[in-house]
Amino acid sequence: MKNDDIYFMGIALREAKKAFSKGEVPIGSVIVKDKKIISKAFNLVEKKKSQIYHAEILSILKAQRKLNDWRLNGCTIYVTVEPCLMCISAIKLSRISKLVFGCRDKKFGGVFSLLDIEKIKTNHKIEIVEGILEEESKTLLKEFFKRVRKNGEVVELV
Questions:
Q1: Model confidence over 70-100: pLDDT tens digits?
Q2: If residue 79 lies in a helix (H) or strand (E), which one and from where to where?
Q3: Rounded to 5°, angle at Cα 125 from 60 and 45
Q4: Among 20, 23, 89, 112, which one is most buried in terms of CB atoms within 10 A?
Q5: pTM confidence score
């Protein structure tokens, strides 16, 4: 399954690069079921002027529409950066079966960085894999924030 994880994380990275090109924090998300892409998205927080428009939330909403169900049992979500508290909650509540992410987010990460989601007892267990294309995800974030700082833009660091 690791080859599948690398392949689909590569697609999530392409989504993150789209965010980068639009001046958004470069985070991408892909949802897969039965080895088929159900949805993909990237951050649109700046464009939509709302913190709700994270890549994970957008890909979850698209997948739910496509499958005509709020339950995403049997789905895997690939995210370039460790999901925040809002997004990991949405992932769990959506009944997604597996989360694969690239790099940790020490300031906002809601899976392991701020808390250990596996220690929170809920009726839904999620398989978690981290570190897939980690360096590529980190490099993209570092490049984005280097450019933001160079241009003097005010964007809160991830």
A1: 999 999 999 999 999 999 999 999 999 999 9
A2: strand 75-81
A3: 30
A4: 20
A5: 0.92
